[in-house]
Give the backbone structure.
Amino acid sequence: MSVLDGFTTGTVTYDGQPKTVHRRGDGPGVVVVHEMPGITPSVAAFGRRVADRGFTVVMPSLFGTDGRAPSGAYLAATAIRACVSREFTCFATGRSSPAARWLRALAADLHDELGGPGVGAVGMCFTGGFALAMMVEDAVAAPVLSQPSLPLAVGRRRARSVGLSDDEILRVAARAEEGCPVLGLRFTEDRAVPAARFEALREILGDAFVAVEIDSSPGNPWGIPRRAHSVLTEDLVDEPGHPTREALERVLGFFEERLR
């Protein structure tokens, strides 16, 4: 079976930027924004799982080769290309990646098509913070930040940065105060997603920020390695009671609560 069996594939263009988009399911919309290095088998499996719970999953391809399994060489090559691309802001603080504007337009159109309270958005790793940037768009009612890694946490200022401009921060803070919650996921020892970033999110969003922080410290009862990073995909242990499985169920429940 192909990694993307069951998805329909088309092209969507905003601001003159065409992108491949994979779609599956029926029901309220959820935009799944893949992690580095691309739409891997585990990312596609997550999208399929969301669709199978009664949602319309729309999965745009931002970089990498769709369906290709991850490897060290593939990850490094894709990361280098992404970091020099004008679509992504990897080091600068105080502004979001231009790709977030494209994703906001996608979310708005999906909501116009499907209706309902709004759409969900999941960003992962390199794109984790994009779900927060998408929250500037009113259509996004269930943003999920899974291991948000940009800007790269080099130095204290970047470790605390959430990858938004001042105006965007004011907008998402206002939406949080109006009642839009934000779900964040990370492993506690993940250097790419320092605790300081989640502290900053709590300061901006207040009680609307719901943090799921999974213990990956040495000797943790689940044997989760310190290098663990991808909560919903590569490091998911799909067994009842495991904290990553519980995190996955928390995300699915979040969509059901917010979008139905």
